[in-house]
Amino acid sequence: MQIIERLRAAFQSGVTAPLQFRLTQLKSLLSLLEDNEPQILEALQKDLAKPKFEAVLSEIDMVVNDLCYTINSLPTWIQPSYVGKNLATKLDDCFVRREPLGVVLIIGAWNYPLQLILAPLIGAIAAGNCAILKPSEISRATERLLAQLIPKYLSQECFAVICGGAEETKSLLENRFDHIFYTGSQAVARSILQAAAVHLTPVTLELGGKCPCLIYGRLDMLAAAKRLVWSKFFNAGQSCVAPDYVLCTPEMREELLPAIAKALSIFYGSQPKQSEDFSRIVTDRHWDRLMALLGKTQGRVVMGGEGSKEDKYFAPTVVVDLDGSDALMQEEIFGPIMPILTIESLEQGITFINQREKPLALYVFSDESQVVNMVLERTSSGGFCSNDGIVHMTLPGLPFGGVGASGMGSYHGRWTFETFSHRRGCMLRGWGLERISMLRYPPYTESNLSWLRWATSAKKKSWGVCSVIELLHFFFAVIYLYTYTEYISI
Amino acid sequence: EEMEKQAVDGARRAFNSGRSRPLQYRKQQLSALLRLIRERQAEIVSALKRDISRSEFDTPIFELIGIENDIKLAERNLADWMAPQPVKKTLLTITDDVYIKAEPLGVVLIIGAWNYPWSLTLRPLVGAIAAGNAAVVKPSEVSKSSASLLKELLPQYLDTEMYPVVTGGVPETQELLKQRFDHIFYTGNSTVGKLVMEAAARHLAPVTLELGGKSPCYIDKDCDIAVACRRITWGKFANCGQTCIAPDYILCHPNIQHRVIEEIRQTLLEFYGEDPKTSPDYGRIINQHHFDRLLALIEGCTVAVGGESDKSQCYITPTILKDVLPHARIMQEEIFGPVLPIVTAGDVNEVIRFINERPKPLALYVFSSNKKVVRRMLNETTSGGVLVNDVMVHYTINALPFGGVGNSGVGRYHGKHTFDQLSHHRACLIKSLAMERLNMARYPPMTPSRLRTSMFFLRSRSGSCDQALRAWAVVSSLLALALLISLLVVLLRVSAHAGLGSVLL
């Protein structure tokens, strides 16, 4: 494919390697966001009816934060990191270099169309790569805006945007990339991995799954309900880390339902359809899917349940009296429907969670730390957050990614830089002390072997005095070998 | 098919029981593995002699010490590795616990290779145990004696259900690959590597692929050629060239080619004597198939040294080929044998171009005393690892990540890197339900002032590019300094005035 060839030639010319180039591109990207905020908000409004607040916080600001953090830290990150050595290699330079991979492919998703494609791009640029962006065709307005803005701000030689649907993506994947970064669904992820296998391309997969939310023990129900409702209905439930379903005891459910109702009315008023702060479903097709799920459920709808297809509004909905075999529990909901399942004990809740695929995020609401710890110890998930939802992914120090069916690899902050870098182990030796090297050459002897084993085996941790002793050993060994081996015929 | 499924199901049952997670259990299994290597060294050495005619001196250095070092490192540091690693917070999470916790993945599949059957199977196992996983170990069937010895010994030392050994050839491996694993660790060649990755794709399993390729070895005009050739000879012909990081071919200026050949020839005499066939330190090719493959590669090239072979012993004498052309057959695949082609190149530019035109190698070797040349080679090429002025020994530093890039592999290991590779690093945020006031700013209904408050808290402090903030930081520091100086001046004046100047001074 021509674009890829062009990018590869640019990469091989070495233009993306210097720190200056990477910083300039990153600062340009920052300008892109600062200069075009109104257009971005408009595009997000068109695609998802995204309220300004959500768009600024979860799309623009997240990327700006990551950009600033990366720009400030990059000079440190690209420095080689020196490592410890054994006795035989004490005089050598051993370090790890971070090197660019080449031409990488970043495939975005439609639910946070800006963040999910620009956040990986930050790391790709920071690591010195060229990149092809393939935004989701479902969030059409953002796709078009990116296709228009990226060539204006970033080097056209090194970065390109390719638009298109499933067919275009498929033919794109036939080409060779040095890393593929995909955010989306498990089904598509499998075919991406298979396409990557042909070229032995490493991949990062940010997938989803059903993120459980366990509510147990002593807690402030209204505070918990507010945070739960905020994380669940943010972006109308279309977040990969939204709490998918709730597990709690029947008694707690009695307290929880009115608390949820109260939180909903505080946030969106009595008519969420009129609220400016509530999003819409992305397309008709997704709206139909959600309605069909509600139709198939064996549970009872206690809140919401209505919607209007014309503006893709789907009311915040709560469903109860269902079990694990229900239609709502077979796939990731990805919408404003909250099923609440009841459990008899914490043990039962943990077992329920562990019978299912590892989720991208796991939430526990409880004031009792032993409850939180027990769930943390006995389950696995991409990320974990107690007494809140979603916000763990806003912290630049935490790696954001899945495990098992929810994905592989991670990013955000420094982790994105590492994802798009190759960690090359380097060792620089000198010509001297060949006498020590000679220990390893044939013809082999027992005594040479003992020396070598001693010299290359791991020693106790060096603490001040011990390292002095180690160095003394080293020098005595050198002197001994030089004098002793003088007498051995070589 | 039953045997493979049973082994995997048993390992999963064992993992689900939770007994591989506690620190005690992991340490106990690791020290048992250490005992296995130490107590049964003699048997391991004989198995390797039968498999690949490996000298009894090569085995400890090339295989066993690496495993021992990894085990000792893990035993010493495992408590630290398992502890939560705190990370930086934002203003809004200042009272919360924010950390990364390493967790086991589940059941790991380890597929070993035949050239270093113990190291390449057991070092990943050390990491799998340290990370708290169960592991299915599949040693290579090509190194038959080692595979059957491993199958006999491992259950005697380790938890059999948690770490089953599955032996067999291609059909058994294919059957294993149909099962679901939480990570697949494969060492071998790229062709099978692609199949492994494809099989892993079905279950969305992450992989580590330690593959190979042609590791170039560049000898600059400006270097100690005698020492360089001696080191290269050692690395190339150890294990009869059957090492993934052996220097595959030499690149040098045509003017020094003759000198290089002579030095290597001389070194070969020192190492293996007149007739390497009789030297106990020189190995054999693993089997007929590879023996035939290597002879076919030599065909059509100019032999400078060696070239003789003995089919009955799978013996190929150390061979150097000169003036090899870039498109020769021997330059199209990884040699993996005691045949060293020399390709001539005019200058460093040509060398760099040559290397970059080819798939990224597992190792790159540069022999040069010229710092500029070394820097250019480091900056303008890429490879799994790079070693200047020696070959292979970077493998012995377990603090260095060992792995390939591009065609030479995916992922890295050795030392703590294995532990990291076979763990899930789970991001954890532990909050309390208190301080709800702080959270109010993010809830709807939205107002511009709420938005401003939220942004103030969520913005990562040190990441702020705010020029004004920076300027204020500088100005306030200067003001503080100015205040301090004026305070000192005032103090001195006062004391001088009060006649205490001499006391102060």
UniProtKB/TrEMBL annotation, chain A:
Q: Would you name any one GO CC term? A: cytoplasm
For this chain, one GO molecular function annotation is:
aldehyde dehydrogenase (NAD+) activity
The record ties this protein, via CDD domains, to: ALDH_F3AB
Give a yes or no for keyword Membrane in this entry: yes
Name all Aldehyde dehydrogenase domain ranges. 3-422
Q: Which domain of life is it from?
A: Eukaryota
Going by the UniProt record, its keywords in alphabetical order are: Membrane, NAD, Oxidoreductase, Transmembrane, Transmembrane helix
Q: InterPro entries from the xrefs? A: Ald_DH/histidinol_DH, Ald_DH_C, Ald_DH_CS_CYS, Ald_DH_N, Aldehyde_DH_dom, Aldehyde_DH_NAD(P)
Q: Where is the active site?
A: 206, 240
Family the entry assigns: Belongs to the aldehyde dehydrogenase family.
Q: What is this protein called?
A: Aldehyde dehydrogenase
Organism per entry? Electrophorus electricus (Electric eel)
**Gene (name only):** aldh3b1
Automatic annotation (TrEMBL), chain B:
Q: Which UniProt keywords apply?
A: Membrane, NAD, Oxidoreductase, Transmembrane, Transmembrane helix
Q: Which residues form the Aldehyde dehydrogenase domain?
A: 5-424
- Output one GO MF annotation: aldehyde dehydrogenase (NAD+) activity
GO terms for biological process?
aldehyde metabolic process
Q: Which GO cellular component does the record give, naming just one?
A: cytoplasm
Task: Write out the transmembrane intervals.
Answer: 469-492
CDD domains, sorted:
ALDH_F3AB
Q: Does the keyword Ubl conjugation apply?
A: no
| Residue runs in coiled coils | none
| Pfam family for this entry, one | Aldedh
Q: Which residues form the active site?
A: 210, 244
Task: Work out whether the entry's keyword set contains NAD.
Answer: yes
InterPro entries linked to this entry: Ald_DH/histidinol_DH, Ald_DH_C, Ald_DH_CS_CYS, Ald_DH_CS_GLU, Ald_DH_N, Aldehyde_DH_dom, Aldehyde_DH_NAD(P)
Q: Which family does it belong to?
A: Belongs to the aldehyde dehydrogenase family.
Designated name of the protein:
Aldehyde dehydrogenase
Organism lineage string = Eukaryota, Metazoa, Chordata, Craniata, Vertebrata
Q: Which gene encodes it?
A: ALDH3A1
